[in-house]
Structure formats: structure tokens, C-alpha cells
Amino acid sequence: MLPIDPTNETAFSFVVFGASGRLALSKIFPALWQLYRDNRLPQGTKIFTFCRTKLEVAKYRLKCVPYMNLDRDRDPVKYNSFWTNVHCCQGSYDNPQDFVDLKESMVRQEIKHNMTLANRIFYLAVPPVVFDNVTLNISRKCLSITGWNRVIVEKPFARNELTYKPYQTQLCQTFKESQIYMIDHYLSKRIIQNFFVLRFTNLIWSETWNSKHIAAIMISIKCEKPVQARADYFNQFGIIRDVMTNDMMQILTMLTIEQPYSNFVEDMRDEKMKVLKQTLTLDMSDLVLGQYCNNGMETDPTKVGYTQHSYIPKDSLTPTFAMAVLRINNKRWTGVPFILRVGKALNESKTEVRVQYKSMDCDRSHKSKSIPNELVLRLSLREELFMRMMLKQPGQDDLCLRQTELNLMLRERSPVIDNYQSLLLDIFAGNQMLFMRTDEQCEIWRIFSPALSYIDVERPKPILYDFGSRGPMAAYEMAARNGFKFYQSDDFHANLSPTNDINDTPSRTQQATPTWMLAKTKSTE
User: Fold this and answer.
1) How far apart are the first and last CA of the chain?
2) What is the pLDDT of residues 73-107, one digit of tens each?
3) How far, in Å, CA of 440 to CA of 447, rounded?
4) 144, 324, 360, 364 - which has most CB atoms within 10 Å?
5) Do residues 456 and 289 make contact, with C-beta atoms less than 8 angstroms apart?
6) Sign of CA dihedral 55, 56, 59, 60
7) 321-326 and 338-343: which strand pairing?
8) In the chain, what are the domains?
9) What's the pLDDT at 506?
10) 3-state secondary structure at position 33
11) What angle do CA 193, 244, 479 make, to 5 degrees?
12) What is the DSSP string of 216-233?
């Protein structure tokens, strides 16, 4: 958080381009309001909207109300005060004069409050088609000369390796790398920081964080909702471009980097870049695509098959589910599959990482294996960090095994700031630690572009899976072939009756069980 300016000479202008869109309404303005409500926004912050639609503050604030999570007993006065700091500007993205008018509006607020230093943040919540015009006009007409300038860039970051290069060139010609913030909503600052401390300061995990001890790692982003918002965008880009080539790859690099030389941002980014360069190009044989269909049981008219939505073409082959297996060719990770799983209209919503350790013999006479240890980092819907491990089952004379969980999260005594709010505060403070560098995305496209080109040209038909299920069986069979073991309470696909729960009786722990349906545990979902 920025220190309080005792002279109140520093102005902060936060400009939201594309303010009439869903992202601004549902994400950006709620985060700004909550920061303002909790007195976390820097003093002297003014918010400006810029879009082609004519907006009025009085009407715009009403549109934002459903997303603001207001408390009637606490917020009304402060909510009114928040909107006195919002100023609406209308203009075309390709008209330089409109950007001149925007700058004049910012200058008027800066002069009005006798502020001599002007810092400006430009949030680009705009479609890709106007990206070049917006960045060019900002750099030519809107930059501050008495303070710093920062630009926040939203995905999609182009479509593939070929189209990303002009995107990157345009961005880097108009702004310095130190001014560019490629935002990732999924990275949880607190859980990532906890994980870094866990890994790099504790011998148990530091010494076992390698292919000698780890069997497989799965990164999952599951959503129980169908494709609704931004349907045109999703149908054009698909699930891989929407989530896997940005959010999930950022999580992967955070898991696999070597310890940075220092705490400086560039040292961290250099280590992430090394991992991306060592990641092998994705092969189609390591990719499963799916598309949700009507399960025949839902009465909700929104819970139908993907192509049954009125806003989706009937012949669409756009994947709504994907599982990819990536491999990193270096000394630490050779032989460990990194399984990326993402999907819409699944059985639940969550974002998590499961680091599954190799099994060890627990009874040499029966040649059976214990349930492998598993480190789980859950980023949403709630943050959790815990370890699954084996202990003796209580109340039994025999040495019978039972799985338990070791909670690694400290109890919070103070309110935890929302992830999106935390990212915005990092931008105000100039902390790029959880933001991508432009060359990182270039390597990510190198990894995925061949498979994406094949999908675009050959248009393979995705495997259908029921709405509300866990996705296509073929994906889980592929994960099992790569050594990942599923738990009944998490992702259990076998058609078993309740009596087939392997924890029903102690003797079950010694019975042969398919590797991918190894154990049922206490649900943590």
C-alpha cells in the first residue's frame, strides 16, 4: 500500500476503457469501490470511464449496484462519496481528439485539488479489435509528464504465436515493460506467497520438490456454470485460449521455477521464462477436448447443451473442456507430467493445484501401496493449503491405514483482502511480481500454437460430456495413464455402489484397486 502523502500533492487517475462492458461492471468497479470503502485506495484517486457509449454517473452507479455487495447499514454514505470521484467521458477509440479531451478532464481534477504530481493508470477492458488504436492514442495524448504511467492489459493476448508478435510489438513500442501489467485474475497473492515460503524455507518440501519424489501435478480450473457471458468471444477463442494459455500457465511457472536470485521482480520473471523455454511443445496426443451436452435431467432452461444455447451456432465445435499434459525438460522436472484441466458446466467450481507424490510400500507381505501424499493448493472458491497423509486408523487393533489432512494455512485474525483488489493495489504500488512479462506470453504461444492451429484447421469433434458431470472419461483415463490417481470424494468416475467405498472396512486398504480410483477420503470440496 502506498504511504499517505502528508502534503496531498499527488493525484492518481484510474481510467477504465470499455467501462460499459461486463468486466468493468462486475469486476473493476466493485474492486475499486471495496478498496475505497476500506480506505485502501491512495488519497487523491479519481476514476474516469471512457467508452463509445454515453455514460452518466447517476445511471452508471445504478447499473453497478448488483455487483457491489453493499451493506445497507454501513455503506450508503460512503457509497455516495465514492461516486463523487467518478467522471464519465465519451469518445471513439480511433479519434485522437477524444483522448485529448480525456487528458484535459484528468488535468482539471489535478489542478482543482492543487496536486503537482500526476500518476495515471489505464485499464484496457476493450475488445482486441480496438487494442492498437487505444494503446497508440494513450501513448500520444494521455500520458502524464509529472508522474508515472501504467497500463493494465486484459486477455485475450492475441490468438496464437503468429498474431501475438505484432500485439507484443505494438504494446512494447508504446509502453515500457516496467509500465505494462498483464493481469491474471486467478493468481492468489496470499496462497502463492504461502506456497513460496513453504517450498523455499522448509526442508521437507524443498528437498522433495523434484521428479525423484513427485509423480504428477494437476492444475484444475473448473466452473459449474455454462457459457453465458462473452459468448461470442468464447465461441471464437475456445477454452484453451481463454484460460489455459494464460492463467494456468502462470500457475504452472510459479510451481516449477527455481528459487530466484533475489526478491527483485525481474529475477522472478527470469526464472519463469527459463521454465517456459524448457517446456516442450504440446502434442495433440496429449490433449483431450470436450463439449458439454444436455444431460436430459435439468429443468433449468439455461442448463442445456453448448450448441443448444440460442447465442451459440448449432454446428459449433468449440471445446468447453480441455485436458492437456505438458512436460518440462530440465533436471528437476523431467519425467513429471503436468496435467492442465479446465472446463465449463462441470460438477463444481474451483481452482486448485494437486501435487501428488509417489507411493511407497506400506505392507511388503501383501505388496500393496499406501495412498500417496498429496499437497493441495486451493485458490478458489476458498483459499486452502493442506497435505494429505496416512495415519493408523483409530480404534483398531490391527495396523490399518486411514488418510488424514494436515492443514497448512494459518487462521486469519484480520479480514483478508480480495484477490482482485490486491492486484489493483499492486499496480498502484508498482509491484509486478504477479504480472506477466510480454516475452513470457510469447513462449506460451510457442508451446500451444501447433495444437491450436491443428484445431482451427482440422476442426476435430470434441467428446460430449453431460452438463454437471466431471467431464469426458477419456480425459481421466489419459491422466491415469500419466500416473495421476483420483480420489472418490474429488473426481470419481467409476460406476460403484456405496458399498464399494474402499474405506468402508480396514481390510479394503489391502485390496487391489484401479490406480485412478484409489481411495475415498473425507470430502474437502
Assistant:
1) 33
2) 788 889 999 999 999 999 999 999 999 999 999 99
3) 11
4) 324
5) no
6) positive
7) antiparallel
8) 10-154 (3.40.50.720), 189-387+437-482 (3.30.360.10)
9) 28
10) helix
11) 95
12) EEEEEEE--S-S-TTHHH
